[in-house]
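Hi support team,

I've been running sequence recovery on a batch of backbones for a student project. Most finish fine, but this one hangs at about 90% for roughly twenty minutes before it completes. I'm not sure whether the input is malformed or the queue is just slow. I've pasted the structure tokens below so you can try to reproduce it. Let me know if you need the job ID as well.

Thanks,
M.K.
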């Protein structure tokens, strides 16, 4: 239940380079870098409810740990995969539907920050969130 709560993006590390590697065009990268993303996480056992809201979209997402589901990124990239708990780490293993390449997302809580790390084709990035 460590992840429960409201989290607002505070800063990014290497996020633009990551999005470029993902094939996201420059205009969308610039917009995404300033999206004011807010994530609300509710965990109940192995079930999660996530609400993402940004300048561009609001999305409600329900998933169960270990169960494969489909998800679309804000730029329209479609993924399929699942989340798993590895100790205190929430790890998402997804594959792009268009090219089959893996995207790994890791969420950890350190103090009052939620750190969301990404890896795609050798490019790492982070988005750091503060509690709302």
């Amino acid at each position: 239940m460590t992840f429960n709560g409201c989290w607002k993006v505070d800063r990014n590390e290497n996020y633009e380079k990551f999005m470029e590697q993902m094939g996201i065009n420059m205009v969308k990268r610039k917009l995404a870098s300033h999206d004011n993303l807010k994530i609300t996480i509710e965990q109940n056992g192995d079930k999660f409810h996530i609400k993402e809201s940004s300048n561009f979209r609001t999305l409600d997402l329900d998933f169960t740990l270990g169960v494969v589901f489909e998800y679309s990124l804000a730029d329209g990239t479609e993924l399929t995969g699942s989340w798993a708990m590895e100790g205190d780490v929430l790890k998402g293993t997804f594959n792009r539907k268009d090219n089959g390449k893996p995207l790994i997302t890791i969420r950890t809580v350190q103090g009052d920050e939620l750190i969301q790390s990404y890896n795609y084709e050798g490019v790492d990035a982070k988005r750091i969130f503060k509690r709302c």
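--
Follow-up from support: It reproduced on our side and the slowdown came from queue contention, not your input. The beta strands are 5-13, 38-44, 47-53, 58-64, 69-72, 78-86, 89-96, 102-110, 113-120, 123-131. No action needed from you.
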